[in-house]
Amino acid sequence: MDKVMNEFAFQEIHPVFVYSAAAAAEEPEGGPHLVPLFIIGFVAGIALRKHSQANLLSTPTPASPYCTFLLSSTKIIGKMSSTLYPTRRLGANGPTVSAIGLGTMGIGAFYGKTDEAAAYKALTYAADRGVTFWDCADIYGSTELTLGKWFAETGRRSEIFLATKFGSRDPEGKYNGGNQPVSTPSYIKYALERSLKRLGTDYIDLYYQHRVDPKVPIEVVLETLRAPIETGVIKWIGLSECSAETLRRAKAVKGVGERVVAAQMEFSPFSLDIKKNGFAQAAKELGVAVVVYSPLGRGLVSGRNFIISRYKSRADFEKDDFRLNLPRFSEENFPKNFKVADKIKAIADKYNATPSQVTLAWILAEDENYIPIPGCRSSERVEENAGGAELQLSREDVAAINALSEAADVQGDRYATAMMALLKGDCIPPEEWKGE
């Protein structure tokens, strides 16, 4: 690099090129702005020199036209990077979001030791890359706090379409014992204020009911959210792990049901439930997007080489890694579940892509109503997953992944028995509600 810089510096190209190179040097390795920065500097140096050579300084200063132009161009490139990333509409009448989102659960909990510095880099890289549909929840440990700090330090809150959730359980243990779904009106108001404070924001773009509370009608939940919708504190509403019937009831609540645009459900080559039980089709008919969580099977899709190299037995998992409690990651089951990942890798090799990228591309090809939100804790994984939206699979390969997923003998449920019992997604009818 030094040799190249010296050659240009001693030729007739204006030194503004040197300044662009310096800015590019601060870009992460493989960063999306690296090449554009060099191009801007090169073109700007020539153009400005020809335009007004008599008025140019031999060496640009920070206040000179060259640097002003360069800094402005760099900001433009950042915006272009975001706007050029593929997008999808959230539901039939909802907002446009990045075609692949960012799951942030691992930033604050559940996968062992957390690293706030790495999280900051990942968040910044995602925003720069155009992956601006971010998903979090009040039970994800310190995630909301970390995002709040990032917003405060960067001033980029308006660039992010932010989703968070309530109602899986009360992380502070004040409601329902802290271990059961809770969506009473008083709790929703309490949870909303807490999330706003932790996130350091005065509005939430998409607010999910994380788990359906069987004891509270969904109509009561929607009526509770009416006021924050009307005041703009909440822009849109989502449900998670709900039944098709609960989703229909939510959409039917006049004046607020129209704001229900997303249903967050698990879907991957290992979990085809929503496709088999008709939920995906029902959501589409209702104009509700399916936001796909755990699209990579919580790491299983990365394949035998990746997982086995790190986890030869349960003893290799960090003690706080929640996958230790999942049936599919038991010592007996998780090696058996690699057969699907191995076959996906064979397809990925044809595209010079990773199994994760191919899986995400498959999900996007499966249905235009799907928006996957893979979890990431590093900028490297953000970049890898982001590439899934830029990969076009052939019809034959989409069909091949469908076939191998259908034929897969997946071992173990998604969650332990007690957790699976919370995923029915139904609630009592309004006439049975007796209040709090």
From TrEMBL:
It comes from the Eukaryota. SUPFAM superfamilies: NAD(P)-linked oxidoreductase. Keywords: Oxidoreductase. GO terms for molecular function: oxidoreductase activity. The keyword Oxidoreductase applies. One of its GO terms (cellular component) is cytoplasm. This is NADP-dependent oxidoreductase domain-containing protein. It comes from Phellinidium pouzarii.
